[in-house]
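Q: Okay, next protein. This is 4-hydroxy-tetrahydrodipicolinate synthase from Streptomyces cadmiisoli. I've checked the sequence twice, so it should be correct. Can you predict the 3D structure?
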Amino acid sequence: MELYDRGADTTPMTNLAASPAAPFGRVLCAMVTPFTASGALDVDGAQRLADRLVTEGCDGLVLNGTTGESPTTSDAEKTALVRAVREAVGNRASVVAGVGTSDTRHTVELPLRAEKAGADGVLVVTPYYSLPPQDAVEAHFREVADASGLPVVVYDIPGRTGTRVEPETMIRLAAHPRIVAVKDCSHDFLGTQKVLSRTDLAYYAGCDEHNLALYAVGAAGCVSTVANAVPRHIRSVLDAFDAGDTAGAARRQRQVMPLVEAMMAAGLPGTVTAKALLAALGLPAGPVRPPLRPAGRETADALLAEHGRLAAAG
């Protein structure tokens, strides 16, 4: 697995212990899962998209997450996607596989499949719908972390799951040797800094509007949906900050915000808008699966216009 030390150049390292601050790199893309026109998994398209994302600056790819339509893809499709992307990117980037479900018994089976398919780590979401209390949330993550040799990224997204991983729970989970990182969609900046100050967990901003702000207080990087369309720009924000150009980093973050808003805060799921924009750009995407519905022409045109404005701004 290629690993990158925050603040250094992008020379690959091959030892997890050599870069505890950013175990999967800095800039990760929450990659869409391309489908064919008939709705089947598009393995070739996934490989082409993955290669483009890595070539244009992504240190890692997160597969089978929210943006990857994990609720509507089968276990077999998830495994096939990990295997195909690993083949496409080789050792140029990390591959993190989403394995979270609402069922602990089911979830613990999936890291082993991901490991065999070539994943470098697993993304585990809080069990949804059941609304487990914090002791049950903690037990769930520990059981999943014990299921394989892969490092675990805790996915804290209470807006979708209905359950927060509370800061005190996260601090306890940090003691587990394979729980190494967090994808943070908690929208709790105070709670996040509390955990950062008391653990060695590598935090990744899971909301594109927080990429720079969270990085500035010690996060490892980001897991970006918007990077599906503009990986170079998302990377440039963190590159500028690392170079000491904080004003430039802020300027580039502000430049991308209209596209972030159009993709992530305009009333449609990010999966829908990301696929609409990718399709408009002639890149692999395909349809979304029901119950999601495709974006309309007006939305796709607006996304393409925002993309063009960002490209023109440099």
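A: Here is a summary of the prediction. The mean pLDDT is 93. Residues 27-247+283-293 form a domain with the TIM Barrel fold (CATH 3.20.20.70).
Q: Noted. On to the next one.
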